[in-house]
Amino acid sequence: MPRVSFYTLGCKLNFAETNTLQRDFEGRGFEAVPFGQAADVTVVNTCTVTAEAERKCRQVIRRARRANPDGFIVVTGCYAQLRPEEIAAIEGVDAVLGAREKFRLFDVLDDFTRPEQTQIAVSCIDTDAPFGPAFSASGRTRAFLKIQDGCDYTCSFCTIPRARGASRSQPLDATLAQARALAADGFREIVLSGVNIGLYGQEHGVTLLDLLRELDRVEGIERYRISSIEPNLLTDAIIDFVAGSRAFQPHFHIPLQSGDDAVLGKMRRRYRRHVYAGRVARIKERMPDACIGVDVIVGFPAETEARFQNTVQFLDDLPVSYLHVFTYSERPGTAAVEQPGRMGGAPVPVRERSRRNRVLRALSEKKQAAFYRSQQGRVRPVLWEAEERDGAMLGFTDNYVRVQRPYDEARAGRIEPVRLGPPAGGGTLLAEDPALAVLG
Ligand code: SF4
What are the pLDDT digits (tens) for 232-252? Predict the structure, then answer.
């Protein structure tokens, strides 16, 4: 049996796409083995979000070649789409496939005989790229389902529209069919994934809210989460729907990027901080225990110290639950790099970017601890995951509090009420005996 191994960098979407490729390989008789083991074919699915991500991609490709001196190495993903020649120049790469070709891998590569010269198959992704369906499993209970790809926005720091093309989405019926199939396979929770999910359905004449309403009726799926949604696309109607829905969980992840209006303007974001604060207020009014995660970027050129402090203060005052902090990285081809004079400031020194990152990570820890404290003693439903970790099992509450309890196989995949106890290490709370709890 031929063997294949995979390495994925970047976002959940990339992971979903790699999982789908893996199923395709397995359907053709390949055995998937862990990365680093002997394999006839290795697929590296790359990311281009920062210079560091690209450096790591190059390192992984070299590791793949060392582990498999005679194996076939395919490199695909966003970095491959944007800079195929740079990747082809790395010793030992056999094929470089772009974003479209990722979903046509077996058409483009008819066998896996190593060529004399690296094969590059990267077509333009700007217009008319088809939607490539994908999903990935996290354990045996939760699946990440890709419903949308690409982005029509032009944020000045972002390369994603160039790497993944314009927004396009999976038709509603096909998405419902996938949700039903996942339910039939035993999944209890689906995380809806995409690049800019709020744009879902525009080419099919439907909206994200239409999809949410239909998904809520799919039997067998007890929980949905929306992986991330732009604040300007998170409407009152969506918030109100989630608050009253059967299965959508009180958990939102909303990119902010900066809490300073001048920086937001230079980033070409489509909202200002008062809009963001309004979204958070509406969520908390309708779902007081909702978990709200925030993406934020530090070190963008227009971010003076005073503007950074505006972000810190804004986030400190907001009732949000955790931050994902990203350090700004110059990406070739973006407006921030191509038109530096328009960004309203000089580059922030790299050391200062790192300092700001540390400041916001500390704020994130404070926010998360406060959110977890607010939930201690409460009774919330938990979906238990099947995996055993050092004698414990883990699960998430509806509002995304990580909990643990001693491993009990009978509970795997079950949703049950638990009382949230004291911190139990590893960013979890201890789940107290559900027999003591009455779900309120
Ligand atoms: S919304 Fe902005 S940051 Fe997000 S993918 Fe689109 S262009 Fe990039």
Answer: 999 999 999 999 999 999 999
